[in-house]
Design goal:
Number of domains of chain A: 1
Shape of chain A: globular
Number of strands of chain A: 9
Oligomer: homohexamer
CATH class of chain A: Alpha Beta
Number of helices of chain A: 6
Distance between the termini of chain A: 37 Å
CATH superfamily of chain A: GHMP Kinase, N-terminal domain
CATH architecture of chain A: 2-Layer Sandwich
Chain lengths: 238, 238, 238, 238, 238, 238
């Protein structure tokens, strides 16, 4: 019934390749079905001006898409001279999600930038980016511990994300592009392994949805992210 | 207990002044407590390229803040040469919210741009903008009906928005700036008079929140927007 | 004979609302007929690099227009990514006019930025901006005196501005939009209460004008600004 | 008494080299003392959208300064990515001045862009640009007549410009950089050979100036431009 | 003696993965040692304005580098708002190289954009991009033939590129980053399988080099590209 | 046989006017046939951040073209808001060429920016710019010696540039615009008086060229630059 033939509560095939990028302190190539995002975490000593002297660190994210990650070629944002509103919205979301599980006091005055670049897009790129970014961030902190820059990994939670939607009245998990284009509503959930909600962004694409439907999507998201937490831990050897 | 002294489920004082702007086809100055946003709806015959020949109309929004709408002066975006990610995120949200209750087929190939400019900011500007923009949009459509450009007002719902948050563990309605700065979590709800959810954007500012807390915030939002729907109708003489 | 029905030497109805903006150290909403400009003066400790160590202060201005301040909607400069030549020309004029009556040595190393944002445009916005900006600037300095940041208000003059023009061969005072569009020539005069000329900008729109005509326009401007000086003083309670 | 040793009513040495640029339809290198501006007039068939179908032509100007035209090197505007407010103000002034003496109906739907590029700056560059631009524009129209594109030169006046100022209380003509930096007030006058005023822009640099002083500056400007009109005609062989 | 331990005339290990990108009409992931570049060729019906009506096609290229492709993170060009001079220089080179072996008349009025995005950088990225881009372009044309859009592949040559340099006085082939940083001179050669030179760009990094040295570098390049032509053909199954 | 009527190995008429710009520490107006480039060298105390504390100086270049330097008017880069890829490529080339013959350790921590602005273009502007820039740079260093800022001129070589090309199968020296437009291949050579190659940039415009042809072009370039070295020395009085 779904274009993908998946059950309503079935994730796409997930693959996490930690350490994919050769130069970054932490990295992870995440694949969810056809969607593929390269996440790299870069450690830098400099810190934004508003944090100087506070003893706190900074975690931020940037997001991009290769011009031909999509079915038809999109403009290169660097050539157009600015990032789209969509790009900025996504990278702000990724950054907030990562900061929500980071103990920035324990981190000290350093910064980590996680770059999430979409190599192939087939729906759910922002959620895949968050799930992969967690692994890259973890590895970057682990690198800092190995280098004696940090005493321990300053993470206070584990975060992953998945999109859910109403497809022909049925709540379904992990929309791909075909499903997303035809969904009545979709919602992105950023959840923690401890069961908390970090971000929820629900949008009615066709008609407004109900509280009950929102709850049904949230249940699917909890089920989906529980599998993603397992995949993250497996990738990290935990 | 709230800095504002309000009850947890108490909205700020709301005022809607329809027809505030002299030149616009529809306009509304909305004040929620100290927050003040001028919403103007401009009707134009031209339509974005991707809609030409489809018979559908377009509704979009732009958002801005006067440099000294805030406690300390912010940079003027026009002088800096670009709109911030926050600005773009907000104007995309307003546009989606308005399109969700517009019958764009009935509207025909015309476009309406709703400008939401914050004259004074004290928290909740994006929600106030949506609530005021609905009134401006309604009036612009009414103007088109009066001019015989449209046969009837092509709206299929009524939309309003309010922010809720967890303040010292208590769910509270309609955060002002002081409350927002200190909230554990906050969520913006865009709801329809028919009880549907158009947009929900919840963010954990300090610690992740629970499903029960999300539900409690949603109940507050329903109560708050029911008052806003009344205020909109009163302003429109309905 | 004038589209407005006013006598040649008659100003539009003028209203000055001091303290209109809640957060600014000084502010004034000025209305001249339909034209309405919100002027806010923001005090900041930082100073442009070229003044550091000189003991002198800085007064500058920025100008903007809400997209639908005009009869038909104009592009938002922040969205277009740059301020127009007209905008820059106007804000440079306002800044120079304010600096001309400020004792920047007495002011010390602080800066005041006066934002002039046009809420409704019907001709004469730059002149209204200057007249209103004087009140906002005065109030900001008064605020500094009340806070013991300054010993006395460092103003050495009082400034106001008005546009005059040749309309069907007759010199007329304070052009509105309809008159301005059809004027043969127009000139903006920035004058002081002491009778001095701070700025004069005259432009032939159709045919060159004569020295005698320039003098006639200047006389009208003197008469017009003398009323504006009274209105400023009344608004300031002087 | 003037730093330049000139009499108060003495112009700098003026030189106009018509046809200086090899490719342009009209051009003139103007030198006033040390200030040197290359003016080229380019004829193009395309016309701005707002003029299509009106039968009217367009005359516009652009202004620039070589980075080392000045005593110390200035940023290259192309490298900085935008034209300064000063540059835009000047090029708008030049364009208005040229349109004031052009019969745009007789010109027909074509456009002429006059580029004024300052090779060496020593004060008065905008005025020199206008005086030189007139010659370049005349020659471009003459070229159109020679090519049978136009029946006659569609100019209805002759325009030139000069700056005057108050230097140690004395009105002086044609300020150079040293004088301009130290003037109490300065004014740029764009005048026609028929005795009309096209533009006047007076600015008090130190203290406001009086009506009598403005008149004295205007008399100097008339005397100065009468010499410039002669130089233009000599250069054009008229 | 080389940091890489390679012989002076030894290429890095080369790998070409045709069809790597899922959506593009043609693609190739090229790896030369650690350097890795993803090349995608996108076929589009639209053509630059200057070619409309000429019957000729267009081949162009864009180049980018993921922010953490390098040893330390570089700014994201999309976030900075412009492409660097280096980026533009490289993408112009790739485009010229591809056009040099394309029969644009046979291609007809369509365009192909080849995006070359560096996933990992270790020297020689522009040369790897050209070598990989040829394969992507070939596959895109093959796709057009399969779709009956073209009768035959409109390529009139085969192109590949390699950098050579003088390292401690010795001419060496295919510089990696460590060698490049320390080379006295380096030259990029874009050569055809038929033995022709399409582009040569030689630069003295320390001291000028001699004609004999340039010749020696060219001989190495010929030897290196002959291996690359073989690798391209193998990847294409030719 | 050449459009210009010149012999294959004949340079255009060359003229170097040292000291042409009044304010710059060093300058030279170079004319090669119709092509005319104004080169000014500006000495500044500030230095790029990456060189602070290294004791080394910096030499860089910027390139521009007046809008009507060309046969038809080109856009003004300052108005368009960015420098073209071609402009950036050229100014990077000029900068590298000058640094190749400068002893930056002997120069100490100061910087020289050489601006090369094309007044009239007829082919070969980048080569003329390099040849003229050398003279401007030499004079700026000489100025520093005269001012006792430097003990001696920190140049370790003499540099000049010329373009050569294949025109109707014949190698020809110093292409003008007509020849360049129709050349099969062209190459720019930046050579030193000591016989070394600083830069070579060869491009096949129509068909790939051979090693023998590259050598023939290099021989012509050597002959051409030997004349240019003489002209430089004559202009410098050496």
């Amino acid at each position: 019934m779904r274009p993908s033939g998946r059950f309503p509560d079935q994730l796409r095939d997930v693959e996490l390749k930690p350490g994919f990028a050769r130069h970054a302190e932490g990295s992870c190539l995440i694949r969810m079905g056809v969607t593929e995002v390269l996440c790299t975490a870069s450690v830098e000593a400099r810190i934004p001006p508003f944090l100087r002297g506070t003893g706190k660190g900074w975690v931020t994210a940037e997001y991009g898409m290769l011009p031909r990650a999509t079915h038809t070629r999109g403009d290169r944002e660097a050539a157009r001279g600015k990032q789209s509103g969509r790009t900025q919205e996504i990278q702000r979301l990724i950054g907030r999600s990562l900061r929500a599980i980071t103990d920035r006091n324990a981190m000290g005055e350093m910064s980590i930038t996680v770059d999430c670049d979409v190599l192939t897009a087939d729906g759910g790129t922002r959620c895949a980016a968050i799930t992969g970014a967690y692994v890259a961030l973890y590895l970057a902190f682990k690198h800092c511990v190995a280098k004696n820059v940090l005493a321990k990994i300053p993470l206070i939670g584990q975060v992953a994300a998945v999109s859910c939607g109403l497809y022909k009245e049925t709540p379904v998990l992990d929309l791909d592009y075909a499903e997303d284009s035809d969904a009545q509503a979709d919602a992105n959930f950023v959840l923690t392994a401890a069961g908390g909600i970090v971000e929820v962004q629900g949008t009615a694409e066709q008609a407004p949805f109900s509280e009950a439907q929102l709850m049904a999507l949230l249940q699917l998201a909890k089920s989906g992210t529980s599998q993603l937490f397992g995949a993250q831990n497996a990738a990290l050897g935990l």
